[in-house]
Write the structure tokens for this entry.
Amino acid sequence: MIDFKGKSAVITGGASGIGLGIATALANQGCNIAITDINEKKGQAAVKELAKKGVKALFIHHDVTKEADWDTVIATLKKAFPPVDYAFNNAGIILQPAPLTEIKVKDWEWIISVNMWGALFGLRKFTELMEQQDINGHIVTTSSTAAASVTSTWVPYCVTKVAVLRMVEGYQAEANLFGKTKIKYSAIMPAVVYSNIGNSETYRLPEYATSDVPAVEQPNIQPGSPEGDSMGMITTELAVERILKQVSYGHTYIYTHRDLTSALILSETNSLLLNNPPTDQAVFNGAHYAKKAARP
Ligand SMILES: NC(=O)c1ccc[n+]([C@@H]2O[C@H](COP(=O)([O-])OP(=O)(O)OC[C@H]3O[C@@H](n4cnc5c(N)ncnc54)[C@H](O)[C@@H]3O)[C@@H](O)[C@H]2O)c1
């Protein structure tokens, strides 16, 4: 596994969950960290802890849906941070589960803005930055196992994450075809990992407000609880250990639950080739895959 000591990484949505887990694990190995996030308070608290590990730790306030914010992030990185070896394009949100007939246009706009536009801006801006810095950079964008097949009541999330996956594949395919860049592109496809994503409503941007959605922070489902196990949930630390190992190997597709994701991809491929109705992820037994997830 590659040693991240002395390297530098930027992580969008790094104030919480998987992003914060990646930041902490990298800082433990001596990697300099820049966290960007819309949550100023959590972001500042996170960099304070990271700096105690003896690495350079920087927080930049950032709404990933706004191109002007991206320009500030890139300018700050150029001015106040070493060349970026790793960019984790990680920020993302989820809507509360609901049938398609009940999902509002504003809900679609919000999730598309954060998950799709946020990832696309990241791919564009981090590519430009790394090309200017002329280094063998690695851009790691977070898609989801939700990109592998449809899940009833989570359809907007599946739609945005399959788009993210195609963007990453497109960037890598063109890097191979045109040979103009030294950048490596990867997509993380997590299944269920402990984080604060169930509280995404508390980060809803005001321009996408709807009147009937409560934005009150709820306790997170715990890994190891009956509900967590039924979804195959694993801890952030275990997910990050698996993610960073695969990043260091330079894998294009990065899994937290390889068996589950493979099963869903095979099932989706069979649907397409055999003209079968699509398989709903909800039919999979999460607990079964949680047990299997012990070997990624
Ligand atoms: N946790 C899971 O089970 C899971 C599964 C598959 C994919 N993912 C993906 O992993 C990534 C990280 O999510 P997480 O689970 O750690 O959730 P999280 O809610 O704990 O962290 C997401 C972070 O993104 C930030 N954010 C939200 N909107 C933003 C915006 N407009 N601009 C900038 N930052 C913003 C939040 O403040 C938060 O710090 C997301 O892309 C998510 O879709 C998570």
User: Anything to note?
Assistant: Residues 285-296 have pLDDT under 50 and may be disordered. The pocket of nicotinamide-adenine-dinucleotide is lined by residues 13, 15-19, 37-39, 62-65, 90-93, 114, 142, 144, 190, 192-193, 195-197, 200, 203, 205 (CB under 6 Å). The longest helix spans residues 105-133.
